[in-house]
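Reviewer 2 asked us to include a model.

Predict the structure of this chain.
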Amino acid sequence: MTRPPRALCAVLLGASCTAAVAAEPQERNLPLWEAGIGAAGFSTPAYPGSDDRSTRGLALPFLVYRGKVFRADQNGVGARLLNTDRVEFDVGFAGSLPAHSDDVDARRGMPDLGTLVEFGPRVKYKFDDMGDAGRLRAELPLRAVIEGRGGLRRQGWTAEPRLVWEKRGEGARWTMEAQLAAVFGDRRINRYFYEVAPQYATADRPAYRADGGLLLVRTGLFGTWRVNPDVRMFGFVRYESYAGAANEDSPLMRKSTGTSAGLGVAWTFARSATRAYANE
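Predicted model (structure tokens):
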């Protein structure tokens, strides 16, 4: 079991808590900001295609902010630069847990996989509201991948075209969001995960040269349940397929599928008197 650093778990927990708390009806008369504390547990593959897992529980504060440009809400954390009835353009980030090679059999003796933060622009296209059937949108994030291990270094680019469906219960007592996405990476990020340099080759792990292309296809479900005005439960499950990936023949690709899951609670203890509609 790997030991993800607190900073990366803060990204994962903070994003989940802001999504849970900000999952409200599309109204303007909401607090400009809300603050609270969240606790959750996460379990994910050590890296895409790994047969080892990374698991961690954590409790941390979070902030929801509904500004006109800067946002920390159900759609992520970043800067919203354009928002129309159909198209939205923003800049945001995502993160992934590290993998210590001593704890991952397939990578034993190889360099560790560090904390990864992905940062870049995202375009969203909103389809017509389907009424009781929910809402549908398409997203295209393009992100630079930055590794934090002994300093900061760029480890390539990823693109993740995805289709998102969301539905909210009456009064936003519950919310549900489903996604279908494909993740593509350039040669540099694929090398980071799947290349085996000659000096790290063994009898069970031959040398391998990685190519750019498809990393994985994933689908997932995220949901929240409002216990009372201040407390929400949240959880997610995600399934990934690596079949047809550019580097499915790598000796580091140990599984053809992977699953992730998380469960937590978010408690809001403070809200602003200023309403968000003044900034919309």
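The helical segments are 6-22, 187-194. The longest strand covers residues 213-228. We have added this to the supplementary material.
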